[in-house]
Write a structure and sequence with these properties.
The chain has 159 residues and is α/β, with parallel strands linked by helices. The protein has one domain: 3-Layer(aba) Sandwich (Rossmann fold). It is 28% helix and 19% strand. The chain has helices at residues 23-33, 49-54, 97-107, 135-151, and strands at residues 8-13, 39-43, 59-66, 75-78, 115-122. Strand 1, helix 1 and strand 2 (39-43) form a beta-alpha-beta unit.
């Protein structure tokens, strides 16, 4: 459950070892650098840990990489009803994010966030083991950070 007085959490999902799959994690790291009044969490899976981290929050942003045949770096803003069970998120996941979130709302409807925003960042490459994202995905990460800041009512900050 939400462990602090903050009512908002940003959950970044990804694999820190795969090039663009780290996009969700990088969003969280950039927000942490700004010391915003929100909780953040990094996860390396879209399994049931996602549900556990969201319980007790009023508002949540979930950020993950995706592979949906869009231009690399494109940021898609979705709600839970926009997530199909067949969404192709990055290949390092064995269960889809949509399935996990829908299960959470089915099992814990009162404990899951009333406001949930899902930001998916289109990958360019997830084949390389490197700590560097492609330039297009780096721009997508910054776009996602700015979208979150805009929605929580904070001024846009360029990093």
């Amino acid at each position: 459950m939400g462990s602090s007085l903050n009512t908002t959490i940003v959950l970044g999902i990804g694999n820190p070892l795969l090039q663009d799959d780290r996009a969700g994690l990088e969003v969280v790291r950039r927000l942490n650098a700004l010391q915003m009044p929100l909780d953040t969490e990094e996860l390396y899976t879209v399994g049931f840990e996602v549900m556990d981290r969201l319980l007790g929050y009023e508002r949540a942003f979930v950020v993950d990489a995706c592979s949906l045949d869009r231009e690399p770096g494109t940021v898609l803003r979705m709600g839970i009803n926009d997530m199909s069970d067949g969404s192709s998120l990055s290949s390092s996941h064995s269960i889809t994010l949509g399935e996990t979130l829908k299960t959470g709302y089915s099992l814990f409807p009162r404990e899951m966030p009333g406001q949930l925003t899902i930001l998916l960042i289109q990958v360019g490459s997830t084949d390389l083991l490197t700590g560097c994202m492609t330039p297009a995905v780096q721009k997508g990460v910054q776009t996602a950070v700015e979208m979150i800041l805009s929605e929580i009512g904070s001024p846009t900050v360029y990093l």
